Amino acid sequence: MTYIVYDLEMTVRRKKGQIAEIIEIGAAKIGLVDGVPGILDTFQAFVRPTVVPTLSTDTTAFTGITQDDVDAASRLPEALSAFVSWIGSDEYYLCAWGPDDLRQLLQECRQMQIDTKWMINHNNLQKMLSKVFKLEKHQQMGLKAALEMLEIPFSGSHHRALDDALNTAQVLVKLYDRLSFRRNKPAEEPQTESEVVYKTGHFENLPFAALSGLFPPDSDQ
């Protein structure tokens, strides 16, 4: 059994009705070596958006991903094909921090008629950590706060897919003996899209919370 910890970066959506598209996939593969969990391999790919091909200045400021990065990239079907090939044939759990990456992935795959059968055994590590530490249901801890609590130093750049996946993987490795993973199928997961709301705070269950610091409160963008 392997554990695939992945993270997605999307174009920034600041208003209801705007389109968010995946522009980067990052992942870390975790396995047991002599009974000890560790990171075995990594995956990273930029994705070329198709609905709105030009990145906004907000997206580049938030992620650091440039227009040149995505212009040279494959579209989502090809990027996911490479990702699934990298995952390999061993049995696996898919893991992400929070529910939003899975929602976005399922939404875009269904819109583009991309096979979702590989999206099995999906586990929300943010929710699992909350259960381990008996947090209230509304107190979903952000990744940065979780790393600080577990005394794991953050490495890389925040809001870059591979770096966030690697940091999330460190949480899984640290809590491995305390986590209970579940098996499931994509059809069992929520299909609704969460709203993008800007909010700061130690605990967060809202996507793109860090955007609140990028724009002035009275901005009409």
TrEMBL record:
Instruction: Give one Pfam family, short name only.
Output: RNase_T
Q: Which InterPro entries match?
A: 3-5_Exoribonuclease (IPR051274), ERI-1_3'hExo-like (IPR047201), Ribonucl_H (IPR013520), RNaseH-like_sf (IPR012337), RNaseH_sf (IPR036397)
Which keywords are on file for this protein?
A: Exonuclease, Hydrolase, Nuclease
Q: Where does the Exonuclease domain start and stop, copy by copy?
A: 2-181
- Locate the transmembrane regions by residue number: none
What one GO molecular function would you report for this record?
Answer: nucleic acid binding
Could you confirm whether the keyword Cell inner membrane appears in this record? no
Enumerate the Gene3D superfamilies for this protein. Answer: Ribonuclease H-like superfamily/Ribonuclease H
The source's domain of life comes to Bacteria
Renumbered to this chain, the signal peptide range is none
Name of the protein this chain belongs to: Exonuclease domain-containing protein
Please report the organism this UniProt entry assigns to the protein.
Cohnella rhizosphaerae
